[in-house]
Design goal:
By secondary structure, this protein is an alpha/beta fold. It has one domain: 3-Layer(aba) Sandwich (Rossmann fold). Helix content is 31%, strand content 17%. The chain starts with 7 loop residues before the first strand and ends in a 25-residue tail after the last strand. This is Phosphoglycerate mutase. Pfam families: His_Phos_1. GO terms for molecular function: protein histidine phosphatase activity.
Amino acid sequence: MVEHLPAVYLARHGETAWSASGRHTGRTDIPLTERGEEDARALGARLEGIEFALVLTSPLERARRTAALAGFGSAQAERDLMEWDYGKYEGRRTVDIRRERPGWRLFEDGCPDGETAAVVGARADRLLARLRAIAADALVFAHRDILRVLAARWTGLAALEGRRFYLDTTSLSMLGYHHDPNEPVIRLWNEICVPGSVPGLRATRSGPKAAPESERA
């Protein structure tokens, strides 16, 4: 009999007006767009039938609403899942920040009056310790950059290396193990969940094109 190894499912919240336009959205509490709500329901369909010992969500509205629409309205709020605090760069696009500060990169340089990768990494480590301790499947609803850092720290990489993981809105990823808990791996990454999408295949979204990742992180 094959032993079941626990997994941590990572769900990024649905689209907001700011995520669609490439604006850094840290602690600003803004709602999902109509498309974001539709995609959140599709995410719920993707997760249907999976049993979780623990479901957590960032306390910010866009994550809580995604969890509720996906069928997890009773998810526990966890402050360590809040998005990176972008400080003075909140609501701004990377391309605009770089006009004032050429070469600026979020993970390497952090944000004035905000967080650094190391600080976000400390939050991620606290959360991962909690998730590993339950030794059962768990699901978290959160935000792009904190989820990227969680993935890096899960695999033993520095928080800085979260920069190497691309993540779309309303996407599903999975952290797990290979052979045993001494071999943490990423089992699934950035599976987009939208109406009509097929699990395991990237779906093509209709509507206005979102800002490229180079303008967002």
